[in-house]
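Suppose a colleague, Dr. K., hands you the sequence of a protein chain of 296 amino acids and asks what its three-dimensional shape might be. Before reaching for any lab equipment, you can write down a predicted structure in token form. Begin with the sequence itself:
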Amino acid sequence: MKRWLGIDIGGTAIKAGIVDEGGSLLRHASQPTPAALGRQAILDAALALARELLAAEPLVAGVGIGSAGRIDSINGTVRYATENLPGWTGVKLAGAFEEALQLPVCADNDVNAAAVGEGWVGAAADIPSFALLALGTGVGGALVHNHQILGGASGGAAEFGHMILHPGGRPCNCGRQGCLEQYVSGTALTRSARAVTPEWDSRLLMNAHAARDKRAAPVITQFANDLATAIINVVQMFDPEAVLIGGGLADSRGQWWEEMLNFLSQAMPASPPLLPAALGNNAGVTGAARMAMLRS
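The predicted structure, expressed as tokens, is then:
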């Protein structure tokens, strides 16, 4: 049985895994992204994970890469990336990995890869058209229509994290102000948490809210309201059959999901189903492997 290697390169972690024809993750490895050390360190870390897994699985037929940033999926080049991955703009991802691994390689945006995974063996396996919001270090997005990723003219479709939520608001590392990413990402929540008390980060904020610490409630309420507003905008623009919420922050949804649904139902009573992504941290790896499978 053939196998494929999927690699997910994000601002916080690099993940890789071997996936079989049925979508099962057979082997997995990960490490923190050495973002502060620049592009070569990031490439070296991703290649090291790839070689580790390939040494254990000789039947790999191809490699798929999902990376943060705007990716040209035709030639596998990073068109643009923010400083979450310093120096990443211009990296020839597919070419670098093909040369190093001597295998066919394809590359796309990491949230597009996650959407491919969710549409294959995840929460959207029976849903032809859906939107995915990924809440992690930043905020990513993907649109799937009739089982196909909508990439846009330059690979930048569904960059939900950089739609303007609060005009003239917080400065974003994309150069604009008020982007969604500055309000509902893990980075943004940590900033908001530390404004309450310097010892908190996003995780401790969620823990405090679970413990009914009243200081946490206004931050969570604002987060839920902002996210609901973003979902309304996505639904109004694209009319998906469902909206999936994934990324690391989705793991804490017990602290904000119901409040977000309340905001959503008040503003848009006939909204499509809102679903938590099913594959968790493995969505990008699984979807990247699926991309490679479909191109082989």
